[in-house]
Amino acid sequence: MMDRISISVTVNGTVHTAEVEPRLLLADFVRETLDLTGTHVGCEHGVCGACTILMNGDSVRSCLTLAVQADGAEVETVESLGDAENLGPLQKAFRDHHALQCGFCTPGMLMTATDMLRKYSLETDDDIRDGLSGNICRCTGYQHIVDAVRAARDERDGR
Amino acid sequence: MSPPDDIDLTRPKLVGAKVVRREDPRLLSGAGNYVADIKRHGMLHMAFRRSDHAHAAIRNIDTKAALALRGVVAVYTGGDIAEMANPYQATSRMKNYQATFIPPLAVGRVRYVGEAVVAVVAESRYVAEDALALIEIEYEPLVVLIDPEEALKPDALKLHDDLDSNILAEREFIRGEVDEAFENAAATAGERFHFTRTTPVTIEARAAVVEFDKGGRSLTLHCTTQIPGIVRDKLSEIFDLPGPRIRVIAPDVGGGFGGKTSLYSEEIVACAASRALEKPVKWVSDRMEDLMTTGHAFDEVVYADIAIAEDGAILGLKADVIGDVGAYSIYPWTATIEPVQVVSFMPGPYRIENYAARVRSVATNKTLTGAYRGVGRPISVFVMDRLLDMAARKIGMDPMEIRRRNLINDNEFPYKAASGLVWDKSAFQACLREAADGIGYDELRHEQQAARAEGRWVGIGVASYAELTGVGSRIAVAPGMPINTGTETCNVAIDSTGAVTASFGIASQGQGMETTLAQVVAEVLGVKVEDVDVILGDTSAVSHGTGTYASRGAVFGGGAGTLAAKAVREKIVRVAGHLLEAAEEDIETGDGNVWVKGTDRAMTVRDLARALYSDMGRVPKEMRDEIDNLEATKVYDPFFGTTTAATHMCLVEIDAETYKVEIGKYIVVEDCGRVINPMIADGQAHGGVAQGIGVALMEEVIHDDSGQVLTASLVDYVVPSAVEVPSMDVIHVEAELPGTIGGFRGLGEGGTIGAPACIANAISDALNPLGIEITEIPATPERLFRLIEAARNS
């Protein structure tokens, strides 16, 4: 066993301290140690985007990040966006536009879209598609996801 | 055939409404329950050491160092598992079929890269993977069979010593006088077509968690399967356990597309380990394992020829299909499932009286092929619709016109296709017409002329197809297989709290069946959609069911759900007649209420259930004895199944510098019968087309000559992202409804069936000035570059 390292990470507003192996992936820390299983692991090599979370306000692949790298960081996961009985606006837009089928890529899509909506104007569908291009969805063909993000943008902008 | 009256359209319509999905709130908030999310006290973790040889004898396996590692609980080899689990194979009554045993862990010999050889069980996944690296396996390499056209030769090395050859299945279809048809043809066209190997890539890789109940000596397997019933039934034989002691649950499953319709080795090994160790065991595939072991798709070479008359009428069709099915015959579908469907569906929706076809399924040192969205039909449509365009060009006929002349007309149904399949009436011609109108065909041809004048490569593609969906007991989904794929079961129950539960043997992998089946049951029963809880993917829910595959969910689920809900409604009406003191024919149900027509005498279904179950004396004993409870189990068998037809059209442009294909427009016009939920139906078409775009342009599993998989990551195996899939139009033609209960036709696979042919035709149309015909896909930039260079240099 490798020596464990003490880390302190703020996840969805709650501070968690833990002793972790240096090799522990942030995705496994979130899912296994903190039991926040909304973050999904789809490829473990940074391509599919299912594990996307926000770290200090930027979207990152939690499968390519070590838990020790998150020491001192603010992490946001899908669980921060709203719960099943009280969905947040982006989650609601996804539901209204049927932007998910199996739901496995969805947490990563939502976190990427959250990042996009906070930082970019997203004027056109091409902008939205470019922003989503690092997240693979195998079910929807993306069209309804684009519709949902566009609707969330309109709500953000009061259009 | 008149529309069935099984769903009363006089009530407010739930079937056909855009109902938001009931499964969404949990999936959107991270509260889904996927197999990888399951945790149990004392749970152990399993990992597999896999073969890095495509073909080799195993000389020795040394697991001592792995076993000695702290945290490792058990290590199993093929010999160990052979003592813990009975052998199994995919049998079939089909003539000229050879079954193979599929060892859960390799015994003595490995036959493809990625085949599981050793399983390690440890206290954590990290430790299990550490232990894998400590296992030493000595291999003696054997000749590797990569090319199926070599492997089928009589002198080829046999992959399975006990079989006669590497040809696992062979079949011929002959109708009419095909040679004569070719002699009388005004034009013929023929080619060697190659449809390469792909892989499903569900974003959730496969996984299994097994719980062992020490007291009951029973196993519960939570796994990512589309076929919980089939898995349960086979595990019962493999472990000599009666059904009630093996429960298979498919919880939230992250996509299937056919890849999860087979029984997998890891599920068997996890069950064996859990039973032996009396502990929960978890296995979650990583992506590399998934790309190398989940049933691959397609992989056929097709030699095909078409003969047409001067007026464009198809006179004859010939096809010789060689399917590369990999190392073993997959369970339960067998090595026939994919290649045989290619020849069964090759004549498609066209009038073809003379047909001769042969198909051979050939074993090679590659991953097993199995079912993938469309199964066989993406290739048959690719070949057939490519041939039609090639032949049309020879006689100077427009591609739309040659289809119009050959598509079966409304007055010709039911039509028996040359391969023996029977098409019931479906909107073949209307789909073609509406697609042309919808995309603005004539206008696009003008635009194309202008683009060509500028030297741009712009093309228009069209493909029409028919698929048999919701296939009942008349035909097995795979020829001769000993599994009943022709029925499904539904139990509808209103319990003593007044809650409605509808339980099915089918499972959902994202199709939204918790919503669509609730719509159907609620409509028939007369309750609200949100009042119906739908149970799917749990073998304890109904006594028999197989699962979700072959575009059968809506037909079977909707049908069985309708039958069971009707039976329960009859019981409600009976009890209400007594409680509301009215004749049964005057009782109405709707929105969760029961009332006497034209009066204010009413009660809720909930109060009615309480009156029956809990209030002694309110319902007389005689009536209770007669109806027992507010519950019914019904089995639906659509017997023939029903035809879903569609036409796809698209506009593409090939970039003159990068050779990348851009899809500018895409339209799908399909006849899927009565649409249950238009939002969900559109989503199925979008997703199917996206996968078809991947097949047409990007996706290919590549092996080198030694059988190594060169596409073992999502960097190398590229699937479409949001920038490669265009916005598309989907039109549902609700023409004459079929004879299935509810008038539903299946639609899950369609998008993937039409898209490869449609796009290949568009690319060929774009490159027509160079005389290029696409015969091999995916049409990657590299392939197009080579074709264009060769055409320019010739």
What topology emerges from the helices and strands here?
The complex is a heterodimer of chains A (159) and B (794).
Chain A: E1 5-11, E2 14-20, H1 26-33, E3 52-55, E4 58-61, E5 74-76, H2 89-96, H3 106-119, H4 125-132, H5 143-156
Parallel strand pairs in A: 1-5
Antiparallel strand pairs in A: 1-2, 3-4, 3-5
Chain B: H1 24-28, E1 44-50, E2 56-62, H2 64-68, E3 72-77, H3 78-84, E4 109-110, E5 116-122, H4 125-132, E6 136-141, H5 148-151, E7 167-175, H6 178-183, E8 187-198, E9 207-213, E10 218-223, H7 228-238, E11 246-249, H8 265-277, E12 281-284, H9 287-293, E13 297-308, E14 314-326, H10 337-345, E15 355-363, H11 377-395, H12 399-406, E16 415-416, E17 422-423, H13 428-439, H14 441-453, E18 457-469, E19 488-494, E20 500-504, H15 513-525, E21 532-535, H16 553-579, E22 587-590, E23 593-596, E24 602-604, H17 605-613, H18 621-627, E25 631-636, E26 642-654, E27 661-671, H19 678-697, E28 729-732, H20 750-766, E29 776-777, H21 781-793
Parallel strand pairs in B: 1-12, 8-29, 10-11, 14-15, 20-21, 27-28
Antiparallel strand pairs in B: 1-5, 2-4, 2-6, 3-5, 7-15, 8-13, 9-10, 9-12, 13-14, 16-17, 18-26, 19-20, 19-25, 22-23, 23-24, 26-27
Helix pairs in contact in B: 10-11, 11-20, 15-16, 16-17, 19-20
* Tally of discrete structural domains of chain B: 3
Helix content of chain A: 25-40%
Please give the CATH class of the largest domain in chain A.
Alpha Beta
CATH class bucket of the largest domain in chain B: Alpha Beta
Describe the model.
The complex is a heterodimer of chains A (159) and B (794). Chain A is α+β, with helices and mostly antiparallel strands and 159 residues long. Chain A has two domains: 5-80, Ubiquitin-like (UB roll) (Roll); 82-156, DNA polymerase, domain 1 (Orthogonal Bundle). In chain A, 33% of the residues lie in helices and 16% in strands. Chain A has five helices and five strands; from the N terminus they run ββαβββαααα. Chain A has a five-stranded mixed β-sheet, with helices on one face. In chain A, a hairpin with a 2-residue loop joins strand 1 (5-11) and strand 2. A seven-stranded mixed β-sheet of chain B has the order 3-5-1-12-9-10-11, with helices on both faces. In chain B, strands 7-15-14-13-8-29 form a six-stranded mixed β-sheet. A four-stranded mixed β-sheet of chain B has the order 18-26-27-28, with helices on both faces. Chain B is globular, with a radius of gyration of 27 Å. Chains A and B meet through helix 2, helix 3, helix 4 and helix 5 of A and helix 1 and helix 19 of B.
